[in-house]
Design brief:
EC 2.1.1.222, 7-stranded mixed beta sheet, alpha/beta, 2 domains, transferase, SAM-dependent_MTases_sf, 5-stranded mixed beta sheet, methyltransferase, single chain, 3-demethylubiquinol 3-O-methyltransferase activity, Rossmann fold
């Protein structure tokens, strides 16, 4: 996705590093420098798979599209559950494409497309089911971006098609307060095979429209001081997303439960939503 960072993207020691080294690169967490870490730390996760697979099985789709597919983790599991016969991964990351193609090397019926779902471009209405793993909806930080995502999903689905993705339950937003300014450092293996430390910090501001900032720092000797990384999200809740989806031509068909087991949010519940595309409002107005 395109990354308008917004105001005050960095905090605490990460902001101090940027002030001391003004030329240090500030990268998306999904760029190459952080890709090796995210692949090692996040992509083995499976906590979201059972709920998505159960919802997908209700639809019995032929063509499944994974929006924000990364290395194709969700599609890989759905294929092994026998769900769908044609699978398409969409992502704007070149690093994601490389890993996706490595994962599915030699397999048929699966393909990758480089697509930015926030950009205005025509996408054929070819999917029976669109899925998003983890809590990807939080990457769409404003109501306009959320509306754009829902419009994109509606456009790419065949008539009566479905979308399945996860959203935090309504009470969970308040739990994020406990993560405010939490920090740690964890080892990972970079693309050259060297062991490194990545420093991670998280900050949540409920009063600032559920603003969730995740900051990262990797030190490099050959590119001193290193690189800063950023994920900036908005913690959406079930009632908010269902209301917006209903206004954008979807109806809620079913819900399932998924419980987070990583990233400091262990034990926090998500609703896995199954939405069916119905009518499409001719001129939907932004919700306030």
């Amino acid at each position: 996705m395109s990354e308008p960072w917004g105001d005050e993207p960095l905090f605490g020691p990460f902001l101090a590093i940027q002030r001391q080294f003004p030329d240090i690169p500030l990268l998306s967490y999904y760029d190459a420098d952080f890709f090796a870490y995210s692949r090692e730390a996040a992509w083995p996760q499976e906590w979201d798979v059972p709920a998505l697979a159960r919802l997908a099985a209700r639809v019995a789709p032929h063509t499944v599209v994974d929006v924000g597919c990364s290395d194709g983790r969700i599609l890989w599991h759905l294929r092994r559950h026998g769900i769908g016969s044609r699978h398409i991964g969409l992502d704007a990351s070149a690093s994601a494409r490389k890993s996706f193609e490595e994962r599915f090397a030699g397999e048929t019926g699966v393909s990758f497309r480089h697509v930015d779902v926030t950009a205005p471009e025509e996408t054929p209405a070819e999917a029976d089911l669109a899925v998003m793993g983890s809590v990807t909806v939080n990457s769409f930080r404003t109501r306009e971006q959320l509306a754009g995502l829902l419009g994109f999903l509606h456009h790419m689905l065949r008539s009566g098609g479905h979308a399945a993705f996860l959203v935090y339950q309504d009470h969970v937003a308040d739990l994020f307060r406990a993560l405010g300014r939490a920090m740690d450092a964890v080892p990972f293996t970079d693309d050259s095979g060297r062991r490194r430390l990545i420093w991670r910090g998280i900050d949540f501001r409920l009063e600032h429209d559920h603003d969730l900032r995740q900051n990262y720092f990797i030190q490099y000797d050959d590119r001193f001081p290193g690189v800063l990384g950023l994920v900036r999200e908005r913690v959406w809740t079930t009632s908010e997303v269902v209301a917006e989806a209903t206004a954008r031509g979807f109806e809620l068909v079913a819900k399932d439960l998924a419980v987070v087991d990583d990233g400091g949010a262990e034990g926090w519940p998500c609703d896995a939503l199954l939405l069916r595309a119905t009518h499409r409002p001719a001129h939907p107005e932004p919700r306030t």
